[in-house]
Amino acid sequence: MKSWRLPKGVLVYAFCDYITAALAWFVFVIFRRVTIEGRRFSTSIFQDDNFLYSMLVVPGIWLMVYIIFDSYRNIYRMSRLTEFTRTIFASLLGGLLLFFTILLDDLVNYLGGYHAYYLAFGGLLSIHFSLTAFSRMLLLSIASRRIYSGKFSFNTIIVGQHPKIEPIYSDIINRERQLGYNVIGYLTTGGNSSPNPHPLAKHLPKLGEVGDLNELVLRHEVEEVILALEKSEHTKLKKIIETLDRHSHTILVRAIPQMRRVLLGKVNMPNVRGVGLLVIKTHFIPLWLRIIKRMMDVVASFSVLLLCSPLYLFVAIRVRLSSEGPIFYKQERIGRYGKPFMIYKFRSMYLDSEKGGPQLSSDEDDRCTSWGRIMRKYRLDEIPQFWNVIKGDMSLVGPRPERQFFIDQIAEKDSRVHSLHKVRPGITSWGQVQYGYASNVEEMVERLQLDLIYIENLTLGLDIKIMIHTVLVIFRGSGK
Description:
By secondary structure, this protein is α/β, with parallel strands linked by helices. The protein contains 15 helices and 11 strands. Helix 1 runs antiparallel to helix 4 (about 115-150), helix 3 packs antiparallel against helix 4 (about 115-150) and helix 8 crosses helix 11. InterPro entries: Bact_transf, EPS_sugar_tfrase. It is a multi-pass membrane protein.
């Protein structure tokens, strides 16, 4: 498996967001003191513990808002227009959050009347948005210039041998203003019996056949794939897309314009300054849905951790008394985009229960403690995973994350298992409600069918229905 790396430029982008948020808050505090409270600015503000504390906390709140809006991705792939719009909505949400949690009660102590509220909120929103938008547009402009000047490029391979790929390739490499392609070679589909050589044979090396695609993507750290399939090769398209779906977070898939009819409904409009290549849609979930789903995850998880803290304490004590070993159990699972993460549970089994290697649990598993069986029946062992949700590793609802050991076994029976990695895994899922803990690979394959249907029909309404059914399973104690 490809080792997980942070998207390019994300640390710089996040650091600039933090500094900009701190600067915006500082400017707002001065604005508030002078304009709203009618006081003169004084350096004594730097001796105010509340001010110094807010300079650390408030930027952190802004970073949390940006994470909810999925702002931290490869900056070389970001659209300035899209990010400008995203910044507007993030600033509005963050401004409302700070206003109602920090500013509202504080302003009451100084003045009355709604005019002060409007002025404070408008000032906070305007100052923060202006500085943040300027910082982000500057960074993205620098990233664009690096691409245009050829200082940065994406490793790219071409799949297929359509005759039209040669003029497109020539256009790519002969442009004075670069487009970010570093084409390292091509793959043939093995389905063309034409005696003619590949159109790019004199320009690029052949890297292999389409069956080698996954291996080549990992070996060469490929970040873009251009599909150039002839009409006779379109039967292989589904297999190619399934392979590339495993890497949908790191790879951008494009296609030549001649494939538009085959890809109808699966493409985005190309960049008007590009070479006319189509962009195959990989983010099938609308941005607004991803944002709302993430907000629901964070708010609900914080609420559960806060309100159910006595339950956490009770379960932790019972686990400690049930058998020797730690209270919490952690294990590596595979999450969104194939990223490994550590999942947390209350320990329900005796120590060293997997000495012989990875094993699945069953209804009468003698590795479970007596308290562990009760926890699993009422899903109490899963509640530490609300922390995984807050961290962003998981969602409230989504396909259950599995270990790579079992993913490999499922893939031998149904390669679509990799499609589950398009979304965050969940604490509960449709498959989990129906099947509970799978006790063998066959049950995991059956659960896969439901999880795939969930992904294809993902809506907030469906998430709510699954959560309601999960709550019913918990109260009935019908889990297994």
